[in-house]
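debug: dumping io for the single-chain case to check the tokenizer round-trip. Nothing else runs in this session.
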Amino acid sequence: MPVYFYPIFSALLWAISVPILNIGLKKIADDSPFDILWPLFYAIATGAICAYLFGMNQPETINFQSQHHSFFLIAAGILTYPLATGSYYLAGLLFKDRIELASQFSKAKPGLTLLLALVFLPVAMQGSFSTLGLLFLFMGIGTYIYAGLKKDVSLAGAGLGLTTALLWSLGEISMKYGVGNYGGFTANFYALCYGALFLLPIVIFLTLIGKIRFQLPTANIPFLLHGIISFYLAYSLFFTGIDKLGVIPTVVINSFWPLLALIITTVLYKINNHPTHTPKIIWLGSLLFLSSGLVTILAQ
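debug: decoded output
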């Protein structure tokens, strides 16, 4: 399979997961925003279980002793899952349960990852990329910043989306250093485990002091599905792309997934006669990201 298929398939899976996540967020909309923490933990834990059962590159080598794992693999799990995805969920709530809008702003991530990769990664780990593709990428980022400043969308939501982008970018750079000889699927299993272990004491403590309410996994089926589709499948493919293709081409090719998410959710809203309005500038930014990904694929 061509290596650029890994980021393409991860983009398709992330787009599919968006309407499922919207269903889960609607159930939390009237509660405290931090009530997303138990669903987030269940999503991460579900992803880890699926990664262990179905997706390990090297199941016989599982070992959590510190000498086997670098700081970067641990950092990748914490940054990517509880921190970045937690911020992503909160942004979705601020956009009134439209996580597809949060995904648009979080797609400043490729530009941030590019800058971090150029600064912190050796050339061999960066991967090949197209100057024209990068131009489209930064034009797309500019449209979203402009939309936020015009207040066509929630400025607070846009801020959380950009925070998500930064955390995801840091997680991707960490994963490139941490993936080592594991392969994307095994590295993702460890990252999910570290993310869950980081989040679990926090949600237990906040539950005990009454800041959030306890929720059973059975009450959060959309988040469990998100854990399978996004955290297990999509991220495993994405990290495999980072491992085999390099950081920069992987994140640029993958950057078209917000457009797919926007199209899928718009169609579903129309089928269900649910009126929505997406600013034209958001569509423009998504098309620029799509162009960036296509140009980068042609450059491989």
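debug: round-trip ok. The chain has one domain: 5-298.
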